Amino acid sequence: MQLRKNRIRFTRINHIFISHLHGDHCFGLMGLVSTLGLLGRTADLHIYGHEDLERIFQPQLNYFCRDMPYRIVFHAVNTSVSELVYEDHKVKVHSIPLKHRVPTCGYLFTEQPSDNHLIKEQMDFYQIPIKDIAGIKKGGDFITDDGVVVPNHLLTTPGPAPRSYAFCSDTKYTESIVPIIQDVDLLYHEATFLAGDEKLAAKTFHSSARQAAEIAKLANAKQLIIGHFSTRYKDLSLFEDEAVSVFANTAIAKEGCEFSVPLSTR
Questions:
Q1: 235 is catalytic
Q2: Which end of the chain, N or C, is less packed with Cβ atoms under 10 Å?
Q3: Torsion sign over Cα 68, 73, 78, 83
Q4: Could you tell me which residue ranges the Metallo-beta-lactamase domain spans (predicted)?
Q5: 114-155 pLDDT tens trace
Q6: Measured in Å, how far apart are the chain's first and last C-alpha atoms?
Q7: What is the pLDDT of residues 217-249, one digit of tens each?
Q8: CATH of domain 82-111+161-266
Q9: In terms of Cα–Cα distance, which of 189, 169, 202 is closest to 239?
Q10: Is the dihedral of CA 245, 246, 251, 255 positive or negative?
């Protein structure tokens, strides 16, 4: 329902990353998998999470989706270490070990480096053939027929710097994640409680809005999104006020909100 409401095409979803096996983070998966089958999906769907995820869902798939027109591929993630769990030509995904009541990890999504931009006047001046353009975009120099090396910086300008997004779901305050998410462009960090309830936060392995902001500050994040608020609080503005007092560029995660990460030069 949320995908339709926010006009996200079902066919664009090829990889699903599950942080941990608590119901509010994985119970909807079976329904989505079944719906995709009813819609006629044929491409493989890759699902990443703790090794128990496959043990839990495979019997349900065998019972409810035995005639499904596409294949589910499970990928076990070691939630105790940070490691590369997925990579293609556009993005890399690393796991982020978190501290919760069950094995849990967040995920760091980082764009692959983009190609350099060609300087047309220089390309024309050196009469660079088409066959050499791809290599020059990747940072290579150009060698003339006379053996003269034309360095890449004379032929190109840097492309945009790779952008990054870190998703840190349920977790108690832990500075161990800071080196993994250092300088991240956009950080989502749970903020279940307010600062006055930080003893309860520690007991239940959750964080406060202030603690989420402290992580963002230590990591030198450019923007922070907080969410996963306890229903004991009726005024969500209190979370934003608390976090902003520590980390100014903070926003609250609300259904349907969109957050942009601007491009910047390298």
A1: no
A2: N
A3: negative
A4: 6-110
A5: 999 999 999 999 999 999 999 999 999 999 988 999 999 999
A6: 39
A7: 999 999 999 999 999 999 999 999 999 999 999
A8: 3.60.15.10
A9: 189
A10: negative
Copy the structure tokens of residue 185: 């462009």
Q: Under the phi-then-psi rule, with left for phi > 0, alpha for psi from -120 to 50, and beta for the rest, what region is 111?
A: beta
Cβ contact 104:19 at 8 Å: yes
* DSSP structural state of residue 213: H
Q: For the chain, which residues make up each domain, given as ranges?
A: 1-76, 82-111+161-266, 117-157
Helix (H, G, I), strand (E, B) or coil at 186: strand
As a whole number of angstroms, the distance between CA 7 and CA 134 comes to 35
pLDDT score at 256: 87
Which of 24, 44, 88, 241 is the catalytic position? 24
- Residue 189: count other Cβ atoms within 10 Å of its Cβ: 32
pTM of the model as a whole:
0.90
Grouping H, G, I as helix, E, B as strand and the rest as coil, residue 11 is: helix
Strand ranges (E), 184-222: 186-190
Distance of CA 29 to the CA centre of its chain: 18
Radius of gyration of the chain (CA): 23
